[in-house]
Amino acid sequence: MSTGFFGDLQPIQYTGPASTEPLSYRHYNKDEVVLGKRMEDHLRLAVCYWHSFCWPGSDPFGGETFNRSWMAAGGDPMEQAKLKADVAFEMFQILGMPFFTFHDRDVAPEGRTLAESNANVNAIADIFEKKMADTGIKLLWGTANMFSNRRFMGGAATNPDPDVFAYAAAQVKNAMDVTYRLGGENYVLWGGREGYETLLNTNIKQELDQFGRFLNMVVEYKHKIGFKGTILIEPKPQEPSKHQYDYDVATVYGFLKAYGLENDVKMNIEQGHAILAGHSFEHELHMARSLGIFGSVDMNRNDYQCGWDTDHFGMNVPELALAYYEILMAGGFTTGGTNFDAKLRRQSLDPVDLIQAHVGSADAIARGLKAAAAMIEDGRLKGFVDDRYAGWQKPENADILKGGSSLETLAERVHKADLEPQPKSGKQEYLESLVNLFV
């Protein structure tokens, strides 16, 4: 039964690149085969619950602009949560996307106690379970919101108060249980406040030890309940904390190594967070694949004139092509996927705008995927990189990296042959022009 929120809008159809119909897929053709795999299986698109159905259109200087009925003041919170679930699954079906994602506090209101909060989440999960069975829509991942409530103002796993640490552990347990029950393919830890504001009141070593133990408990519980999905961490450098411990992929990898977690946890990488860390999206993806910890992505983009995480829908095809090149080079998604962690602009008031944003971004992502696949099939980009490092394939050079050399032996080699290496062009402009052939 329709909620009426989207009027009489019908499921979005693929109409092809020549179409001028804005509410249609012109490039996202889920059955198109790209590099031997259906596009839908490559991209594994997921609609996120929080930005799509929980964000009211506020910003630091103004209140809500969207006025959704399930957000109205004075309404019964659980009845509003049920209506929100109905609207969400109606939108999932209109878009024809296979997955969704959520935080526990997105789907159900917080109660007076954690037991009441958990009961609320589980009641909505019952509704989800039926809707998922009826529609075939799946859960890409679940997570817990441990940053909004004031109890978490000093962090969750890294909070100086052990009682807050215990509360966070109990909340994550329930969120993992719900994710497991709904067949979620991953569980994400997003440390919204796992960091510090000032070193004057902070013991970093203590907080990192807490964070490491917390994550180890998550991995232990995953195995205890038989959850086969992937545990993911989402790097983010700042906002709201001055410095967050999950700063970027390289920082998180060092943390995982320090606490023996590098084989159990992978990365959920967001474009906007990469920019906040002073990187490009493709840098973070490349780093994750190089370190063997690539898992999933949150797809959005930042406003480059604004110094915070603005979460625009991804529409920049050249950027997306470079991102999906790295994803494909990493072997593509296994349990992960492409989560639309993006929100409407606060002047985009109409329900149809929510549909249009996802449709337009899906088309841009599809174009990026196809451009990336064409670059891989062409082979010149990878071939250039392989040739640039070809010298390391020679036995005497490969032996250096295996520990079969020393400063003394290399010095002898240089002096004996009177080596004077000559630089070779990196041909950056040629490579950038090569990429432009495909986008």
From TrEMBL:
First-tier enzyme category under EC: isomerase
Gene3D superfamilies in the record: Divalent-metal-dependent TIM barrel enzymes (3.20.20.150)
Single GO BP term: D-xylose metabolic process
GO molecular function: magnesium ion binding; xylose isomerase activity
GO cellular component, one term: cytoplasm
Family annotation (InterPro entries): Xyl_isomerase-like_sf (IPR036237), Xylose_isom_bac (IPR013452), Xylose_isomerase (IPR001998)
Entry cofactors: Mg(2+)
Active site location: H103, D106
Subcellular location(s) of the protein: Cytoplasm
Residues binding Mg(2+) 2: E270, H273, D309, D311
Annotated cofactor note: Binds 2 magnesium ions per subunit.
Binding site for Mg(2+) 1: E234, E270, D298, D341
Main location: cytoplasm
Coiled coil: none
Catalytic activity reported: alpha-D-xylose = alpha-D-xylulofuranose
Gene name for this UniProt entry: xylA
Subunit annotation: Homotetramer.
Domain of life: Bacteria
Family under the similarity heading: Belongs to the xylose isomerase family.
Keywords, comma-separated and alphabetical: Carbohydrate metabolism, Cytoplasm, Isomerase, Magnesium, Metal-binding, Xylose metabolism
Record EC number: 5.3.1.5
Protein name per the record: Xylose isomerase
